[in-house]
Amino acid sequence: MKRLVLLVALLALLSAGLFAQQLTVAVSSFDVKNGADRSVADVVMDLFIANLVATGRLKVVDRNGFDRITNEMKFQSSDWADSKKVAQLGRALNANSIIRGNVMLLAEQIIITAYILDINTAQILSTSSIRVKNINEIYNQLPTLSNGIVRNLDNLSNRPNTALGQYTIVMSSFEIRGGLPAGDVDVLMELFITELVANGAKIVDRNSFERISAEMKFQASDWSDGTRLAQLGRALNANAILRGSVMSLGQNIITTTLLDINTAQILSSSTLQMGGINEIFSKLPVFVKGLEENTLTPANVYIVGRRSVSSTGIVFYDKGNNYGGWQYLEAAPTDLSNVQWGTYNQDVNGTITAIGSGKKNTELIVNRLNLLGESGGAAQVCVQLEFGGKKDWFLPSKDELDLMFKNLCQKGLGGFRDGEGYWSSSQSNNYYAWTQYFYYSGRQDYVSKKNTFSVRAIRAF
What we know:
This protein has 12 helices and 20 strands. It is of the alpha/beta class. The protein has 3 domains: about 25-160, Rossmann fold, CATH 3.40.50.10070; about 160-295, Rossmann fold (3-Layer(aba) Sandwich), CATH 3.40.50; about 315-460.
């Protein structure tokens, strides 16, 4: 028993030792934007550090040491855009990350944001923000800011596998074509970055973009030059760039476009309309979520419910391994309507309902239909399909059809028609085959093979 207690104590000490190897952060002076008060930002920074230390989750470099070393290095505000100088600063401080923050004004409210910046990659690891109506509310809200940045950092390894998370993104400065003043747009970009990171995106510090694009003399016309765009991406250590525009047309309109740096392909775009700038607080999270939902995943990256750059349809199943020569199932982008199953009063021996059986089922059905001299059956129209150069489509089994309903239709994906019935490749008996109705309950039923239903072909890869 004593040995067990000693072992537990030893493990606890080892865990504490591993925990001690957590991030060591240096907190930079908070920036002020859009008319915010410098003296308020200084107080916010001191209180933020105190709250951050109180969490016990990060090693925080003493502020006096930070100020002394930055003065000795003659480190200036513009140097934040220089990854080499930031890395030198980190080594001098014995820190592996920097916390930068902003105190900003927007729509008569005070907004405070903070983010942890990896000094080696210039990538934002975690963000947090608070919003108050007046200065008196700041003190009580600052623990929310510090706790939020630690909590989001803890969740870094457990973030959902999102489309945006597959890219390392750098933001260019939003173009202003009327509507909002430049100061408001600058604050908007900071809020936008916070939401992107919260949605799993890997964001490169925007200061790096400003410096490197200036050094490369990157101009507006270069956005359409694939070679120049790829050069910019390599210099920024990013594979996607997010561009944005703020315009006015009766309402304030914000548009964003996500570009693949290597191909100049548009991966996603989104538009937000606002009657006034105060609407940004309620609409921005939905806007960024929409950008994420519309984003293509990179080639050879497949996520359930997402379209990949290289895929033809929408992935609806990932079995987690390549056993049997396939890992994913994807649905064709469109339906085929008014199709009979065929082989009425004829047995198709061997069809089953399990996941992974649809392809074999389809082969059995097509062979039987051909022997009977029938054409236009549900299985036949599937194998005759060609989408995106792919010709290996088949009719889903009963269980595969149910997966498609649950992972796509119930989430509003795939363009399925509400209430429509879809054939499976699983026979019930000589006269009946299994179908599923794509509405709220997803009821499955066996019906006469003479009936006409819709077909949504799938493929395995």
